[in-house]
Design brief:
This protein is mainly α and 715 residues long. The chain folds into three domains: 3-180 and 360-674, no CATH class; 184-228 and 308-344 and 685-708, Alpha-Beta Plaits, CATH 3.30.70; 231-301. Helix content is 63%, strand content 4%. It contains 30 helices and six strands. The N and C termini lie far apart (73 Å).
Length: 715
């Protein structure tokens, strides 16, 4: 990529962003689009726009985002979202404070040397930017001291801001859990690995007697976990018939006109996909199906609660202090029996995973790790090929017939600017769902934990395959003949070629924050989908609500994507300091735009009170260590004799991570008693707490009948 291609990429990305900003300003001011741009406020019963439409200008959203407080974010989108903004703000702070030294010090030091005559960072084609990087420094030069000192500066700034962030998130989590309102999960624990039932005893009696003995004064009741997959399926079928009935009734009402006051009753066919079979009256047919399905569901509920009990239960206590104490206590002499953990929000429970036994979970975890390792290994091969083959020069060598297209200057410039980055982004979009499925296969009990696990896997995948894979792929492809002649030069070639991909990653970061955040703000895709559904598919209010349901921020993919940018910017911050302002723009623009989305658009699907933060913190440290090791290797390639003095940096990072884990992490892993002991406004309604954990497919007005006693103990 030459300098003109880089400017083309940057310029067109910026123009696209400006256009998307204008589109957002226009479309978000249309009342008919409120449900797309302000769904969070609408669901909370607030006016879509504060002050009305007439008092707003295209930049009002920026002022609202900048003036919003952390308390506003917690109120609208929860603690997890507020913690995500702590992450964005922390990385932004690291880059800003680092850039205050790196840019004014390293750029003049680099540009006034002439090492580019003997080496280049972009295969001899990008010398304009090479002069602003470390590759322009002559080997063994005393100028390398400036870059050496800056390595320590970036690390020290990171340590200070990460410590402050961990401390703040810990406080934020504590304050949220201290809240005086009743949270059902604070009065319950989840028990797994319950031993086999003794002869003549029911599972309910076994669990009740065990916990009544340990907690005689505060034990409230238990709920035995059941295998309710079949009941879930019937319940979903029932809900489907209810929706179809509501739709048929809405169609019938709309058919009533002055010319036809009685309307036309809708009909449908009962066969496959409604295209074959006998034709029936839709309203009568769905009413019949609902009645039949209700009967079937009630019968399945009785069978499930009596005959499909599992070796897990949810235990309820009348005191949240006792529940917190139980969650962090070892209850049995053997670790593989009576495993107790803090209960999550009811909506987070992965019911099928609760029955998986202790040693099965351990084996599953290692099997999944092995599968993920293979996935990373085999994904690395195609990504390396993508990074190598999607450069225009290599494509022309492999596909000579495209030469006439490449000779067109405009097309050549656009292809060079975007082809590798777009190919990489599309390729990466295929992976997250696979990693989430694998994480759930480990036996993880909650949705938020599964998302954190998938996020960690996705982070290591992106770092190993995108950052390292692209670097190795481009290097190996470009220097294959050299390696054939001198295989012993592999290490030196890889290290010296690290800056060679700075241009690629510079363009990648710019594309991500200009185009990515422009699309995020404009919400063009959700807007188009909503209007198409409203015009052609939606007949009822419920269908309309489903059409504009906004979803959540998507931490499972968003955080690893951000962490990839952190890794890239860290690793190139000293080698090519020009990447630092691009990284700061990414996180600054992300903070601003996602602040608007969190306050007005996205609705959290769960609340884990900042449990994601320790994982984010560890990933930032992993990126920092990778950066420190990278710089150690690169100083070696530059034959800087004092390079070994960088060895303490990764050791300090590991020590810093160890201290943070010891000081802060236990309060994230287990509920603390001082937080649980905080006074509540009202006494909890324990029956409501209990009912909050009943799966929708097992919820029934007949909860206290004898048929339900085996799985649900009485007070």
């Amino acid at each position: 990529m030459d300098f003109s291609s880089f400017l083309t990429s940057l310029g067109t990305s910026f123009i696209i962003f400006v256009v998307l900003m204008i589109v957002f300003a226009f479309l978000s001011s249309r009342p008919g689009n409120n449900v797309v741009y302000y769904p969070n406020r609408i669901l909370k019963g607030l006016e879509p726009l504060e002050g009305g439409y007439k008092s707003r200008n295209p930049f009002t959203w920026i002022k609202e985002a900048l003036t919003s407080s952390e308390r506003d974010v917690v109120a609208m989108s929860g603690v997890d979202t507020a913690v995500y903004f702590v992450f964005l703000g922390t990385v932004l702070g690291i880059l800003v404070f680092s850039g205050m030294i790196l840019l004014p010090v390293l750029l003049p030091v680099a540009v006034t040397d002439d090492g580019w005559k003997s080496q280049t960072t972009s295969n001899g084609t990008f010398s304009e930017l090479d002069k602003l990087s470390m590759a322009n420094i002559t080997q063994k030069s005393n100028r390398l001291w400036a870059f050496f000192i800056c390595c320590y500066w970036v690390s020290i700034v990171s340590f200070i801001l990460l410590w402050r962030a961990y401390k703040h998130v810990s406080w934020l989590r504590g304050e949220a859990l201290k809240a005086p309102d009743v949270k059902p999960e604070q009065f319950a624990v989840v028990v797994r690995d319950i031993p086999a039932v003794a002869e003549g005893q029911t599972r309910k009696d076994q669990v009740d007697s065990y916990f009544k003995t340990i907690y005689p004064d505060t034990f409230y009741r238990s709920m035995i976990v059941t295998d309710h997959k079949k009941a879930d399926k019937i319940w979903e079928e029932l809900e489907g018939y209810k929706k179809k009935l509501a739709r048929a009734e809405a169609v019938f009402e709309k058919s009533k006109t002055d010319a036809n006051p009685e309307g036309t009753r809708p009909t449908n066919r009962t066969g496959l996909l409604g295209i074959c079979g006998s034709k029936v009256d839709s309203i009568e047919y769905y009413n019949e199906q609902i009645n039949e399905t209700i009967t079937k569901l009630e019968a399945e509920q009785k069978v499930t609660l009596k005959d499909k009990q599992q070796n897990a239960a949810i235990i309820f206590f009348s005191s949240r202090v006792v529940a917190a104490s139980a969650a962090q206590s070892l209850h049995a002499q053997m670790v593989d029996t009576w495993s107790v953990l803090a209960a999550p929000e009811p909506r987070q429970l992965l019911w099928p995973n609760l029955k998986i036994k202790y040693f099965q979970r351990e084996v599953r975890q290692y099997v999944v790790y092995f599968i993920v390792a293979l996935t990373i290994l085999f994904y690395m091969i195609p990504i390396a090929f993508i990074s190598a083959f999607t450069t225009l020069q290599n494509l022309v060598k492999l596909l000579p017939f495209i030469k006439p297209v490449v000779r067109i200057t405009v097309l050549r410039t656009v292809l060079e600017a975007y082809l590798p980055q777009i190919a990489l982004i599309v390729f990466l979009a295929l992976l997250p769902k696979l990693l989430l499925i694998l994480s759930k296969m480990e036996g993880i009990p909650t949705e938020s934990h599964a998302i954190r696990a998938a996020s960690g896997k996705y982070f290591y995948f992106t770092v190993l395959n995108v950052f390292i894979g692209v670097t190795l792929g481009g290097t190996l492809f470009g220097t294959l003949k050299t390696l054939e002649n001198s295989p012993n030069k592999l290490v030196s070639l890889l290290a010296s070629s690290l800056p060679g991909n700075a241009t690629f990653f510079l363009t990648y970061v710019a594309l991500k924050f200009f185009v990515g955040y422009g699309l995020e703000l404009s919400r063009l895709v959700p807007l188009i989908i909503f209007h198409l559904k409203r015009k052609y598919l939606c007949k009822t209010d419920a269908e309309l609500r489903e059409a504009w349901a906004p979803g959540d921020l998507g931490y499972g993919t968003r955080v690893p994507g951000d962490m990839l940018i952190v890794t890239i910017v860290f690793c190139y911050s000293v080698i090519a300091p020009l990447i630092v302002p691009f990284g700061a723009l990414y996180f600054g623009l992300g903070w601003l735009i996602l602040r608007n989305q969190a306050l007005k658009v996205y609705v959290p699907s769960y609340e884990s009170y900042g449990r994601m933060w320790p994982h984010i913190h560890n990933r930032i440290l992993a990126s920092l260590i990778l950066y420190q090791v990278t710089m150690l290797g690169y100083f070696g390639v530059q034959k800087f004799y004092y390079a070994p003095f960088l060895i303490p940096l990764p050791l300090l990072s590991i020590l810093f991570g160890f201290v943070c884990a010891k000081k802060f992490y236990p309060a994230f892993e287990r509920p603390t008693l001082e937080v649980a002991a905080n006074t509540m406004n009202v006494a909890p309604n324990m029956d409501l707490v209990f009912r909050a954990f009943i799966p929708p497919s097992l919820s029934s007005e007949k909860i206290d009948e004898e048929d339900f006693e085996d799985a649900r103990s009485h007070v």
